[in-house]
Amino acid sequence: MSDSEDSDISGMENEEILSGSNAKQHAQQLKLLQEKDPEFYQYLKETEKELLDFKDEGEDTDVDVGTDLEEDVESDLLAEGKKKPHVKPITTSMVDSWCRDVKSRGSLRAVRSLLRAFRAACHYGDDDGDADQSSEKLGIISSSVFNKVMVFVLNEMDGILRTLLKAPEAGGKKETIMELTTTKQWKTYGGLMRVYLGNAYHILNQMTDEQMISFTIKRVKASAAFLAAFPSLLRKYIKVIIHTWGSGRGPLTVVSFLFLRDLCVRLGSDCLETCLRGVYKAYVMNCKLSKSVSISKLQQIQFLGNCVTEICGVDPPAVYQLAFLFIRQLATLLRGVLSEKGLKVVNEKKKGKKYKESKSTKKQMEKAYQKVYEWQYIFCLELWTSVICTYGSDTDFRPLAYPLSQIIQGVAGLVPTVRYFPLRLRCIRMLNRIASATGTFIPVSSLLLDTLEMKELRSPPTGGVGKAVNLLSIKQVDKNTVKTRSFQEACIHAVIEELAEHLSHWSRSVSFFELSFIPLVRLRSFCKIIKAERFRKEIKDLIRQVEANYDFTNSKRVGIGFSPNDPAVEEFLRAEKENGESHLSEFVKSLRERTQLMHNSLVEKSVIVGAESSVSGKKVSEYDEENEEEGEAAFSSSWLPEKKKSQVLEKKKKNKKRTIEEREDDVEPEEEDDIVEDLVLSSDEEDEVDGEEELLSDEGGDSKSQTASKDGAGAKKQNNSSRKKRKPKPRRKKKAKVSV
User: Fold this and answer.
1) Which of 427, 580, 672, 705 could cross-link to 412 by cystine, CB 3.0-4.6 Å?
2) Burial classification of residue 681, based on how many CB atoms lie within 10 Å of its CB (0-12 exposed, 13-18 middle, 19 or more buried)
3) Of 153 and 690, the one with more pLDDT
4) What is the reported pLDDT for 623?
């Protein structure tokens, strides 16, 4: 551009100003000039600066328009482009220096730096969102730095923050923490504890390695008591820990349970109710199975049930109301099925007809039975049976034994067919456990003896030998299995064992003769009808043991002067009761050993899927011990959290372009439009990447926590798996019909 052109344009500018045009309009023109020709604008700024400095006629004071204009332009450019703040990479030397300062001098500045680094590690890959653009951010550049920061903070930060807050060295109750929140130290450093716990919660939702999750939960458990000061964060922790407890395997399940139990013990009844509701729901969801169940799954369900039982023992008076509510729900389901069956019988009688189930009626009733005859319902009964047996001596849980036993008896007699004998056997075992734990008599013998009178067990088998049947892993059998010899043997052996177990509970009772009279009569009758010699021998052995036992009790009660309802009855055979010795109890031990051998042989022949779940059977105390090397072993891989938001969307756009290009290459030109119309570009990943609030500022202060959930992480995995490329099949051209 020549000097003459410059002078002409500058003259035009001066004439506009002198003509009294508005200063704001002139500023807008200069702004447009800067956007269209930035080189010329820079030339005017350097050579003719006075042209950019002008006065508004309506103003009395001078205004530096050029400076304001430059600031407005820069702010607009920042608003449009949203420049990212400067990210300072974290190195291992920086982390080592911070760790040395914290250990040697207790430097507060180093503590804040470590928490900032911890925040950067936990939020690695997240979008900046509405973060403070003017502040400098720390960034993780390698997995070694990530591992070093995570291990040190998780191992040491609890003790460091307890020292700053002047809190107890370990543990602490809810009352202690609430008193601590009123102190000056909490107002100054309480936000640091929120930052630490909030970021640890965030990384728990991102990690996929069970060893990392297990170590993180174990270390955060030391600071669990401080969650009493942050109710919203406490609810989020309970939710994510319950998820890891219900979906994890091995040590992860144990560590999650210890975290939940520690919360219930330290934070009181309010936290206990929330935890118990969530744990019970997770237990029920794990019990949703098909007709048969594997041995490993049974072990897992049994362990989860033991965990729920342990939580119920933390505060029995507070748990009683919830336990009563859950048992009442089970009773309501059973009552609905019984009332539906009863209405059908009543309607038939009103019509003057004898009730007889048709095929359609049977199908309807089977659908109604499935509400009760499913694994979820049965395992819930077993759970509350375990709770009552464990705390049967406690006055709080003892009243629940009667309604629960009534429900179990109703379930056992709902469908009196041999196909559902495995389910009836489970119910009988539950009743025997309740009777033994509470010392109350439950009439179980009638349920067992009615089974022996079914024609499938009295007549010879017609279906051959058949496969060995494990009655504990199924709830019903098919019609072909009922006719086999192996199923008949399993049923009769189970009846003999459970009947002997029932009678052995009262083998030292003064009324044993009256209790065993009817069972003996029916056993002798069955022994005459059955033709198989091996079954008759089993039943005769049981009859001999029962007769020997009532002969012994009758000889001891001769000459007794008290009545059966006299409290002095408790003194009858007191020595034998304390020793647990009787003729029948020794016979029951031998039956148990035989059953255990048969069960072990079935387990050895079957294929156990997920055998690693048996790790849960170890002692809980083994996982509660401190291990300094565990953190280094857990965070020793090259794992980093997944990238989110813009980074994921950019990758997705590239994948879309590649997919379309591959489709264009694979299909013929004339079919190109149809193929593109059939291509579905899913936007699930864009929807699932939600905006997240930052948990802390760059100075390490208190801030809001995010509402991420584990369910979202599970959905993300499914969506990622559905993004696999699929090659389209070329469409076939329709052949034209030729008319002859």
Assistant:
1) 427
2) exposed
3) 153
4) 47
